[in-house]
Amino acid sequence: MDEEILIGGDILAAIYEALKLSAPELCHHIKKIFRTPPLTKEIALRQGESIYHQYAVEMRLPDAAAILDELVKIEKAYGYNFKFRIGDGDERQINFLVIVWRQHVEQLRLKHDKPLPNV
Question: What angle do CA 36, 40, 46 make, to 5 degrees?
């Protein structure tokens, strides 16, 4: 069984805010994720893990890559420490969003890559 690709709701909210800034036509991909119920898991957080709900992210690779391209453009235009406000004053830096989304794109590539035949 394939492992689900999970991303915290805080990260997705910040990515949504970033996309509103430069590529609102891509926002519907994030809205679609938020329409699904979040996954619940026992609270046993390790350092660096999000306390926010986790969402299973299923998306076509070209769409995920387009979002990554936009996030990288924002990072280049505004600087790596540019922040997006989410929720009750929380903020996420664009460089962190780029890192997390890049990992997501790489997981998608691996998930959909066909293994080489045994020869």
Answer: 125
